Amino acid sequence: MFIKKKADNAVVGVVTAILLIGVIVAVVSLVQTIYIPKIMEQREAEHMDKVAEQFTYLTSVIDGQAADRTKNMPVATSITLGSKELPYMLSIKAFGTLEILDSARLINVTLTNGTMKTFPVGVITYSSMNGYFLDQSYFYEAGAMIVSQSEGNLMMIRPSFFVDYDSPDLLNISFNVVNISSVGQKTIASGFGTYPIQTEFYSISSNVTFTNVSDITFTTPLSNAWSVFINQSLRAADPNLDSILTDTGQAVVLDFSSLSKVNIILKIIDIRAQIGPGWVEQPD
Question: How many whole angstroms separate alpha carbon 219 and alpha carbon 34?
């Protein structure tokens, strides 16, 4: 009987240890599958908000440089590409890519005599590679800041675009376009760290008034954001003007064939940019 009691105690100890291990595993699994994703999703959402703030600041810096027009004074703006994983439990990092895209967009102005003028526009882009939160992209494009998700895109900061309509005789559209061009080979950075993007005013490459314009086309994959903004600007000048706008999904087209006379005042402001520390001078 004495030996049997020892055996029973040993079995109870083993069972207790197994139960404790099972409880620990269950708790760890619960935390890993439910709470860790929620924590990481919140961290990545906060990171997206931070990038939005940084891009807002970048936009204000470039707008200030375009207005001040002081050459040879680059200004650095830091962009945080991603976020680290948790120091405990199992999680993954969030990554991002910051890039300068030269001549990625096109503005075409067509006159009534058939002459077409084309202006390439460079942009600055940030794209996230999140593990838990919805991926987002931010763009500085032609003076506007735009956020894009899988469901669509929205303009967060408007460009310098004005509509003046003296119905039915004359429509004046003034558009100050910021063109981003890269300097050297520093055009892209990927990872999860913080990288500076440096920008400086370079020149006013074009400042011209086009008279007797038949149409203007802005080619961009973010056409929804532009069409909503331009449509609002047109309707503010006259509710009937929204009929001249067409969104093709890859371009916004303003057809002026129904109007008597249209003038486009187009100013192209060239801003040079590079990613990373240390400004690389390029010959003019």
Answer: 44
